[in-house]
Amino acid sequence: MTDGRPGVVVRALTPDDVPALVAMEVELFGAGAWSAAMLAEEVVGPGRWYVGAQDTASGALVGYAGLWFDGFDVQVMTIGTARDRQGQGVGRLLLGALLDRARTLGAAVALLEVRVDNDPALHLYESVGFERFGLRRGYYQPENADAWTMRLELRRHEGEAR
Ligand SMILES: CC(C)(COP(=O)(O)OP(=O)(O)OC[C@H]1O[C@@H](n2cnc3c(N)ncnc32)[C@H](O)[C@@H]1OP(=O)(O)O)[C@@H](O)C(=O)NCCC(=O)NCCS
């Protein structure tokens, strides 16, 4: 789908990818990891669009991301890069793919939640224009960690009103 500079291609995810997604979820999110059943539902769920970053050399999945389009706005459902491939541009590539898709869908706004102490993700989101607009206390369980809610106006530069 996309020839990425960090040695990956971005492609659509399928149910066959769920085992690899589970492994990355556990590595990245620990106790908060989505289960195989949740991931299997998400990948094919209504309004969902999930992509993975596949290493061009090994064929292994090294990142994944997904959105939900409700007909008006998109919600970034998740994004993750395998630990040994972080800091190489994979996350930026995946987020860019989600936002391109959101614009193609005609979404007005992209929304997401992020743990208040997740500096890498906050930097990534803010670097593409997301702004914090609220705080959800105890959003992440079982850790009971707070989340920032963030939004990005996708039509701002086109001068369109919602
Ligand atoms: C957030 C995450 C997806 C970023 O993926 P990545 O592939 O490492 O990101 P990239 O290499 O594309 O870096 C993109 C930007 O993220 C930020 N970033 C990445 N690693 C960072 C770090 N350790 N500290 C601070 N900022 C960092 C930088 O702004 C970077 O921009 P730059 O290219 O100008 O340096 C990755 O850290 C991750 O998987 N974290 C665990 C899962 C997670 O928390 N997901 C988000 C849930 S809301």
Kindly describe this structure.
It is a single chain. An 8-stranded mixed beta sheet has the order 1-2-3-4-5-6-8-7, sandwiched between helices. The protein has a single domain, classed as 3-Layer(aba) Sandwich (Aminopeptidase). 28% of the residues lie in helices and 36% in strands. The protein starts with a strand and ends in a 9-residue tail after the last strand. The radius of gyration is 15 Å and the shape is globular. The protein is built from 4 helices and 8 strands. Helix 1 (18-29) crosses helix 2 (36-44). The longest helix has 16 residues, at 90-105. The protein is of the alpha+beta class and 162 residues long. The chain has helices at residues 18-29, 36-44, 90-105, 119-127, and strands at 2-3, 8-12, 48-55, 61-69, 74-81, 109-115, 131-140, 145-153. Bound molecules: coenzyme A.
